[in-house]
Amino acid sequence: MIEINEKTKIRLLHVVYFLILALTVLYVIYDTDLSRRNSISKYDWSGGWTSSDGRDICTDDIYAGSEGVTISKLLPDPLGADDSFCFLADNISFSVYVGDDMVSEYTAEENLTGKGYGNIRQSIPLIPQYSGKKITVILRSVFDEEGADTGGDGRIKNVSICPEKVFSTILLTPRLLPAVLSLVVVFFGVLLICIFFAVPRKDLLPFNIASLGMMAILLGMWCLIQTGFLQLILGKTTGFRILTYVLIIFVEIPALGFINSFTVQKKLKYTQIMVIFWALSLILLFALRFFFGIDMHNSLWIFSASYGIVLAFLGYILMKDRRYCKENGIERDRKYFFAGCICFAAFSAIEIISYVTKEKFIITNGNSLRIGLCLFFFEMLIQFLYWWSGEQEGKELLIRIGFNDHMTGAGNRRAFEQFEQSDINGNKTYGYVMCDINGLKQVNDRDGHEAGDLLIKDVASCLIEVFGEKNVYRLGGDEFAAVTFTDNEDDFRSMTASLREKLAEKKRSASIGEVFVTEGSMDYREVKKTADRLMYDEKDRFYQGSNERRRRR
């Protein structure tokens, strides 16, 4: 049988966990009352209306101008006790009559953006006495005649006869996915802002995390407002209408801050140009609104032109920086950034094609744009994490260089001093070894320093092989220390015996002083003195009868 290690088991458990979680979410979304539109289709009341000139008409085909449209229809007989005449009013004023009685009237008021207000949920209660009576609806666009003729202004949608709670389900169900996608973009923004405040050295960041996070929050909120989800839940429209136009304009400044920080050349003039352009765009929009009375809805061409110019300008900055890097041989890892840009461009193209051709793709109603944004900010988060992992590896390398002997790979004296301060205490059981290379000076004088370096490396490798790299320290040119926290003295003596065998196999010689301490039975300073004395006793025996004198430290 194939044995599965612990890491593989944990990974399999994670896979099973996320699979079950995903299946649960899919079930909730696609096989509950969140998705059963067939159960609410019976409430659809958009067809079978009669216009004032006697034509049969569907409310989906009505685009009311400023002169107004009148439609009528017989109410169901009987009516349910909780039934209401429900519809979504889109930039329209209306009056509703049952028989000769006016049951509801709404006249839109102007706001900062103009007369438009977007979508308002309307639920007009119907009493049982209205059963079978004629209902008449008079619709008038909130825009003037010119505005109404520019396409689709002033209409009612999702006309239904049903309880108000059912109508809420009808409206919110198709908006759930785009709302979730929008919130994912906002989540990425909040996460990036949190990362920005969590990092102590902002100057070391690879790009402006705060600007990128602000971009995500503004774009995500704009996308969320575009779904109408918040408007329907909170019942507020005017404030969100204003935010629809304002938020997207304010994205331009953090977008420039992010792009400018992402380039090698940081040019102040780019910021100055963008701020001037942004200010002029705002002045133009508000001048058209307040001095010329032009509704912002009819100024969409200015917004579109502004976005196009900003994107072109940001693209110019990136292209110029890439050319500069290529000319100067500067390498920058931007693969995740460009992957995100490609994803965003591709899904935006799908959205534009769908809007222009009026074709319904698998992803429509702004969802492709939202998916593109999610992928872009996800890629940028990956880009940051990729940099962060490299930064941490670089820090670990610097720490390693600062605390390791570059020749042998063992810890240096600085690392040993830190080890003594943090890891040695009076209650531990451990084995302590001092090791001094025999004959190093003779090898250096006879065979050269390269041979001497090789001797040092060989002795160090034997120590590391027995005690482990983290437990071996080079204290001087030919002197090493090693520590092992084994609880068994026999094991410790076996390790030192193994060290002597490995040295002999490599035909190397070193004097060794070894001390085993049980639960702090000996003071650490005494341990060092004892190991040092034992090492030099062994060294004296090695040099006994030799003409070479050994200077004792």
Helix and strand arrangement:
Blueprint: H1 6-30, E1 49-51, E2 56-57, E3 69-74, E4 84-90, E5 92-98, E6 101-106, E7 119-125, E8 134-141, H2 145-149, E9 155-162, H3 164-172, H4 176-198, H5 209-227, H6 229-234, H7 238-250, H8 252-262, H9 268-290, H10 300-327, H11 335-357, H12 367-403, H13 413-422, E10 430-437, H14 440-447, H15 449-467, E11 472-474, E12 479-484, H16 489-505, E13 510-517, H17 524-543
Antiparallel strand pairs: 1-2, 1-3, 3-8, 4-7, 4-9, 5-6, 5-8, 10-12, 10-13, 11-12
Helix pairs in contact: 4-5, 4-12, 5-7, 5-8, 8-9, 8-10, 9-10, 11-12, 14-15, 15-16
Adjacency order of strands in the biggest sheet: 2-1-3-8-5-6
Element order: H for helix, E for strand: HEEEEEEEEHEHHHHHHHHHHHEHHEEHEH
As a percent range, the share of helical residues equals 40-55%
Main sheet specs: 6 strands, antiparallel
